[in-house]
Amino acid sequence: MGRLTVKDGHLKAGHDKVFKPAKTVPEKVKAPYEHVTELVDVKKKIRDEEGKVIIAPRNMVTNPPKRGTQYKQTTFSPIPSFMPDDYNYPRIVARKEFEAAKLLLQEKPFSHRVRTTDVFNSGKMVFGEDVPMPVRNLRITTAPAMVQEVPFKGPGPARSGFRCTFENFPVYMPDPLKFTQRIRPVEGEEEQRRPFRNST
């Protein structure tokens, strides 16, 4: 709640006049640059000389809504008519491209062989083989025959038939079945367990 002002309150307080604050003299400050307004308020003229409101053109122009029905096959445009599709058209285009490429071929087939030309010196003259070389006598060497004290004897033929292994067949031993028997604890007797032992 704000403070209330009392009329003629200064007279009751013993003052002749109402308190007024001291006047502040404004000092003009000269800026180093000229002031330029950032926003220019342009006042539009909405009325003519007779005082009637001038109607401005429409800001946005759109097409009228399309008409349709609320039944099956509803479209904004008429149903397109049937147009047959030529499924062989890709083959026709490929055939035309093949015929156009065939016309660009030359009469003689392509050959990657380079035409041979004569050189000043033949290969034999370059390597010095144009002079007849003397015939070389090749020395035929034969390895000496191996001499053994005892003639070689191969291992005997492998054993065949029943029990042809190094040892006899092991005797058959049946695998006994293991049955688990659960012991029910008896009332009044303490269960004997092995004491716990640390792994270390």
Architecture overview:
The protein has 200 residues and is mostly loops. It is 12% helix and 0% strand. The longest helix is centred in the middle third of the chain and has 15 residues, at 89-103. The chain is extended, with a radius of gyration of 62 Å. The model has no long low-confidence stretch (mean pLDDT 78).
Q: What are the low-pLDDT stretches, counting only 5+ consecutive residues below 50? A: none
Biggest beta-sheet profile = none
What is the oligomeric state here? Answer: single chain
N-to-C series of helices and strands? HHH
Q: Could you tell me the mean pLDDT?
A: 78
| Radius of gyration from the alpha-carbon trace, in angstroms | 62 Å
Helical content (DSSP H or I, runs of 4+)? 10-25%
* Strand proportion: under 5%
Distance between the termini: 85 Å
Gross morphology:
extended
Which structural class best describes the helix and strand composition? little secondary structure
Count of helical segments?
3
Strand tally: 0
